[in-house]
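Researcher: We're teaching a course module on how sequence relates to structure. For the next exercise, students receive a sequence and then see the predicted structure as C-alpha cells, so they can try to spot secondary structure elements on their own. Here is the exercise chain.
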Amino acid sequence: MHQFINVTLAGLVQGAVFAAFALALVLIWRSTRIVNFAQGAMAAATAFVALALIHGGQSYWLALVVALVCGFVFGALVERVLIRRVEGGPELNAVIVTLGLFVAIEAVIAIVAGNQVQAFPAPFSLRGFSVGGTTVAFAPNDLYTVLAVVVVMALLIALFRFTRIGLAMRASAFGQEVARLLGVRVGRMLTLGWALAAVVGSLAGLLIAGGGIVSPSFMDGLIIYGFVAAVLGGLDSPVGAVVGGLLVGLLLAYVSQYVDKNLVDIAALVVLVVVLLVRPGGLFSSSTARRA
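Model: And here is the predicted structure for the students to work with:
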C-alpha cells in the first residue's frame, strides 16, 4: 500500500509538470490556433538563462523572474519575426516553421552552453514529507510544482473568461477579419498570445528542471507527454490540460512501476490514438461544429 501511495504521488507530481507544458500549448492554441512544436526548446533556452544567473550567484527567484521575462520577449519576437511571415498561408507552414525553430534553438543552446549535462538547483527541499513516521514521495518542491500549475490554470481561466483581452485574443484566433472590423488589433493579440504561451512554457521548463539535470534537449520528452495531455484534456480547455496532465502522469507512473518501464512511451501513444479516435476534441471539449 505504501508503494502504491508513493507511485501515485510521484505520478501526480510528474503529471503536474506535464500539465504546465500542456497549459502553454492550450494558451497558444486558444489565442492563435497554432500548435507550437518549438515550445519545449524555447523553454529550455530560458531555463539555461536562469541557470547562468544562478551560477553567477543570483537567487533562484530572481533567475525565475528573468527567465519568465525572457520567455515573454522570446515568444513575442518569434511571432513578429517568423510566424507572421507565414500567417494567412496554409496552416502546415506555421507547423514547419516551429519544427525548424525547435531544431535551431537546441543547436544554439548546445553551442552557447555546451552539450554536457548540468545540475539545476531546486527552490525547496527534495526530501519527502513525513506522515505518521513514514516518509512519502512528496516533497516541498513537489508541492511548489503543483501549486504553481494550479495558479497558472486559474489565471488562464480568468484571462479567457473574464477579461476583454482574453476575448480579443480568442476572437483574433477564430476570425481575424471579423475581429478587425470590431476594432480588435489582431496583430497585437497574436503577439501577446505567443508571448504569454512562452512565459507558461518557461515556467514548465523551470519546474521540470528544478532538482534535476538539464541539457539542450532535456525538454524533448516533455513535449510528447505534454502534447498528449493537452489533446486528452482538450486543446481549448485549461482545466482539461491540467486534468489530462495528471491522468497521463498517473498512467505512466503505474505502467512504469507495475507493467514495464520500457512501455511508457507506447502507453502514451495508445492514449493519444484512443482519444483521437473516440473523442478528437478531448475530454473537456465544449465546442461543436456549426453549420452555415
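Model: If you want an answer key for the exercise: The beta strands are 118-119, 130-131, 134-135, 213-214. The two ends are 56 Å apart (CA to CA).
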